[in-house]
Amino acid sequence: MTKPLLPYSVSFDLASVPDTGRELILAPSAEIRRRIAAWAKVSVLEALDASIRIARLGENYYFYEGRFDAALVQTCAITLEPVHTKIARDVRRVYCVQPRTRQVKPVAPPHDADEETEHVDGSVVDLAAPLLEELSLAIDPYLRAPGAGFAVSGAGIRAKEGPFTALKQLKDFETPAAKSRKS
Q1: DSSP code, position 137
Q2: What is the pLDDT of residue 116?
Q3: In whole angstroms, what is the distance from residue 167 CA to residue 152 CA?
Q4: Of 140, 129, 120, 48, which is closest to residue 91 (Cα–Cα)?
Q5: Bridge partners (DSSP) listed for residue 66
Q6: What pTM was estimated for this model as a whole?
Q7: Helices then strands (H, E): number in the chain?
Q8: Taking a C-beta distance cutoff of 8 angstroms, is the pair 49, 86 a contact?
Q9: Cα separation of 97 and 109, whole Å?
Q10: How does pLDDT run across 11-25, given as a tens digit for each residue?
Q11: Pairing of strands 124-126, 11-13
């Protein structure tokens, strides 16, 4: 199974992380934000700013911690009008760099590495991939504009009766054959 191509990628060599860690800022250009918007199926990605910190957890283990803020325009699922949305999320990953030769045993994870460790071949990772993954998960696919809703007609079940009223009516309903057997 191949990974889908992402519209934004920032390669980073984990081997270059000093003992004190490394901090990075990502702010894609307008053209890249346009490609991300098309990929995420939103009208416009007005802004995407991220700060990332990478630190060593132990031999072959690295901690990725980031935060992004995004401003985007989506289409209301009901009115089809544009809706401005802001999303802010924290992103965390633990990477384990796999040894290049399979004969070498991997080092045991440090005590603070969780079971969600992502194993990578080689020391180069994509810093933008976790951000895009979290952004795509945070986007509401059925966003409604404030006050947008469907009008409910008076026919059928009234709100006070609740959704199970119709089921109760079906349970209490007697067919003509059942009525004739009772008499």
Answers
A1: H
A2: 76
A3: 19
A4: 129
A5: 52, 91
A6: 0.71
A7: 4, 7
A8: no
A9: 11
A10: 999 999 998 999 999
A11: antiparallel
